[in-house]
Specification:
Radius of gyration: 29 Å
Helix content: 25-40%
Strand content: 15-25%
Number of strands: 17
Keywords: ATP-binding, DNA-binding, Nucleotide-binding, Transcription, Transcription regulation
Strand order of the largest sheet: 5-4-3-8-7-6
CATH class of the largest domain: Alpha Beta
Low-confidence stretches: 1-17, 190-200, 206-212, 462-487, 537-548
CATH topology of the largest domain: Beta-Lactamase
CATH architecture of the largest domain: 2-Layer Sandwich
Domain Sigma-54 factor interaction: 215-444
Distance between the termini: 68 Å
GO biological process, one term: regulation of DNA-templated transcription
Structural class: alpha/beta
Mean pLDDT: 77
GO molecular function, one term: sequence-specific DNA binding
Largest sheet: 6 strands, antiparallel
Protein name: Sigma 54-interacting transcriptional regulator
Shape: globular
Number of domains: 4
C-alpha cells in the first residue's frame, strides 16, 4: 500500500511502516488531543492525523448521548486531491446497523460485498458505497466499561487494515475514548452541560491530564519521564527504574513495553522480593522433570515465557547474591539452561529492572554485584516521589476519585478546594499508592453525596496513622516456617540475644555461628528476624526454646 508520510509531507512507498513510525504517530496524535477541549475539534484533528498517516478516505467520530442513546457524528471525507468535506449529523443508535454491536463493545469490519448488501436499507452505508469505499471499520470507544461512541474509518483500497494497522488503531481508539470522557465531563460535548459546583469546590475532571496508560501529570518531572520513555521504548536497551516504593515504577515499565516493538506479546513480571530465594532460580530458568525433589513436571521459566517480549524484574536489589552471576550471563549471552537440563536455549528478551534500594550502598556492602549493576544501568530512569511533584496531586486525586466512584456507582462531581490544597502540602511517604488508598477510602465514606467526603482531620489522621515517615527499603521476605528449618531460626535468635544484636566482629553473632557476616544478614532477612529487637536486651538462658 502507499501511505502518506505526515512527518515529511510526501508519500512513503513502503508496504509496511516501521514500528518506530507508529510510535511517533501515536505520540503526535496524543499531544494534539491533550490540547483539545471540545468534540468538533477532537474529530477534526483525529481525521486530519488519520488521513495523513494512513491515507484513509473516510473518518467519522461519533459520540453517544447516554440519555437518548443517539449518535452525534462528525464525519470527514477526503478526495484524491486531499480536499476535505465535513458533515455533522445525529441518528438513533437503535436504528442503525451498528447499534447492537456497539452496545456489546464489538468491532465491526465491512467489506465491499457486505456494504452493498446493506446499502439499500441504511442510507449511511449507501452514501459510503457511492463514494467508492471498499472497506469500513467501526471501533467502539469505551472508557471504564462505558460506551462513549465509535470511530468509523473507511478506505477505497481493499487491503488497508493489516494486523499492524489494526493494533495501532486499537490504541488510537483507547486514547480517543479517554479524551471524549474528559471533554464530556467538562461539559464541552455536543449535548452536555457543565455541572453546578459550590464556590469552594473543584470539579473531579478539571485540568485532567491525558496520556496513554494513565501516566498522569503536568509537572516538569513527569514530562521528563515521558520524554525518556519516548526515547527508550523503541529500542531494546535494558532499562533500570529507580525510585521509592509506590512511585509507579511498574506503570512506567508497562508503558515502555506497550510502546515498544515487543508489544504483541504480554510483558512478563517477577517480583524478586515475593519469591523465596530457594525457588527463584527455578522461577527464572525453569526446570526439567526430576531436576530436584518435588519437580514432578517440566516448568517453563520466566526467561522462556518472555521470549520475544519484555521481562520486568521488580525489586532487583533483593535478588540473592548467588543468583546474580547467572542473571548477568543471560543479559550478556541471551541464553539459558533449565535446571536439570544440558540443553542451552536462546532467548530474545528485553530487560527492565526496578528497585527502591540504594544499589551503590548494596555494592559497597557486597550484597549486589557491581558488574550486574553496570549491565543493568544502560538507560536509568529515576521516578520522582510524589512530594517532588506536588502540582500533580490534584490531577491524581481527581483521577482516583473518578475511578473508584465508577466502580462503586457513586456520582461524585467535586473535591473541596481546601482539601486539594492540603493534599498538595502533605509529604505522602507512601507516594501514589498511598494517595490512591486515601481516595478510595474517601469515596467509600462519601455515600450518595456529590462532594467528596474528606476532611482535613481525617486526611491528616489517615496518612500519619497508616504509613511510616519514610519507605526506602522493602519489607522483609516472610517465608512459611516449614520452608526454613526451625533449628536454624532458633540458633540465629539465640546468637542475637547472646550478643545483644551484634552481627559482625569477633564477638558477633556471625562468628558464634561460624558464618560470614553477609551470609548471616541474608538469612536474617530471609527469616524476617528484626535485629533491633535484640539490641540492648539482657542475655536469655540458653534453655529457652524459640518458636516461629
Amino acid at each position: 500500500m502507499t501511505a502518506f508520510d505526515y512527518r515529511h509531507g510526501g508519500l512513503c512507498n513502503t508496504v509496511d511502516r516501521h514500528e518506530h513510525d507508529y510510535f511517533h504517530f501515536l505520540v503526535d496524535l496524543t499531544d494534539a488531543v491533550i490540547a483539545t477541549r471540545d468534540i468538533p475539534s477532537l474529530a477534526e484533528k483525529t481525521a486530519d492525523y488519520l488521513h495523513a498517516f494512513f491515507g484513509l478516505d473516510f473518518i467519522s467520530l461519533e459520540t453517544v448521548e447516554s440519555s437518548t442513546f443517539r449518535l452525534n457524528a462528525h464525519s470527514f471525507a477526503f478526495d484524491r486531491q486531499n480536499r476535505r468535506t465535513c458533515n455533522c449529523y445525529s441518528k438513533s443508535l437503535h436504528a442503525t446497523l451498528l447499534g447492537t454491536a456497539l452496545r456489546n463493545h464489538e468491532k465491526i469490519l465491512f467489506n465491499r460485498k457486505a456494504m452493498l448488501e446493506h446499502a439499500g436499507k441504511y442510507p449511511f452505508i449507501d452514501t459510503l458505497v457511492k463514494k467508492g469505499l471498499q472497506v469500513l471499520l467501526h471501533l467502539p470507544l469505551v472508557s471504564a466499561g462505558e460506551l462513549l461512541g465509535a470511530l468509523a474509518i473507511g478506505s477505497v483500497r481493499h487491503s488497508h487494515f493489516t494486523p499492524d494497522v489494526m493494533e495501532l488503531l486499537n490504541r488510537v481508539s483507547s486514547m480517543l475514548a479517554m479524551a471524549i470522557d474528559v471533554i464530556l465531563l467538562h461539559g464541552n460535548g455536543n449535548s452536555c452541560s457543565a455541572l453546578p459546583l459550590p464556590a469552594d469546590s473543584s470539579p473531579v475532571e478539571q485540568d485532567a491530564s491525558l496520556h496513554p496508560h494513565n501516566i498522569i501529570g503536568n509537572s516538569p518531572a513527569i514530562q521528563s519521564i515521558l520524554r525518556q520513555i519516548e526515547i527508550v521504548a523503541p529500542c531494546n536497551a535494558t532499562v533500570l527504574l529507580q525510585g521509592e516504593t509506590g512511585t509507579g515504577k511498574g506503570l512506567v515499565a508497562q508503558t515502555i513495553h506497550d510502546l515498544s516493538e515487543r508489544n504483541m506479546h504480554e510483558m512478563v513480571k517477577m517480583n524478586c522480593t515475593a519469591i523465596p530465594s530457594e525457588l527463584m532460580e527455578s522461577e527464572l530458568f525453569g526446570h526439567e522433570k526430576g531436576a530436584f525433589t518435588g519437580a514432578l513436571n517440566r516448568r517453563i521459566g520466566h526467561f522462556e515465557q518472555a521470549d520475544k517480549s519484555t521481562l520486568f524484574l521488580d525489586e532487583i536489589g533483593d535478588m540473592p547474591l548467588d543468583l546474580q552471576p547467572k542473571l548477568l550471563s543471560v543479559l550478556q549471552e541471551h541464553q539459558i539452561r533449565r535446571l536439570g537440563s544440558v540443553v542451552t536455549l536462546p532467548v530474545d528478551v528485553r530487560f527492565i529492572a526496578a528497585t527502591n534500594c540504594n544499589l551503590a550502598q548494596k555494592i559497597e556492602d557486597k550484597t549486589f554485584r557491581s558488574d550486574l549493576f553496570y549491565r543493568l544501568n544502560v538507560f536509568p530512569i529515576t521516578i520522582p516521589p510524589l512530594r517532588e511533584r506536588a502540582e500533580d496531586i490534584p490531577l491524581l486525586a481527581r483521577f482516583f476519585v473518578r475511578k473508584y466512584a465508577r466502580q462503586m456507582n457513586r456520582h461524585i462531581t467535586t473535591i473541596p478546594e481546601p482539601i486539594l490544597d492540603m493534599m498538595s502540602r502533605l509529604p505522602w511517604p507512601g507516594n501514589i499508592r498511598e494517595l490512591e488508598n486515601v481516595m478510595e477510602r474517601a469515596v467509600i465514606l462519601t455515600g450518595n453525596s456529590t462532594v467528596l467526603n474528606l476532611t482535613p482531620e481525617s486526611l491528616s489522621g489517615f496518612t500519619t496513622r497508616t504509613f511510616p515517615v519514610t519507605v526506602q527499603t522493602p519489607e522483609p521476605i516472610r517465608i512459611p516456617a516449614p520452608v526454613i528449618p526451625q533449628t536454624d531460626r532458633n540458633a540465629i535468635i539465640r546468637a542475637l540475644r547472646e550478643t545483644g544484636g551484634q552481627i559482625g566482629g569477633k564477638s558477633g553473632a556471625a562468628a558464634r555461628l561460624g558464618l560470614k557476616r553477609t551470609t548471616l544478614l541474608a538469612r536474617i532477612k530471609r527469616l524476617g528476624i528484626a535485629v533491633d529487637d535484640f539490641r540492648g536486651k539482657e542475655e536469655m538462658p540458653s534453655t529457652v526454646t524459640e518458636t516461629a
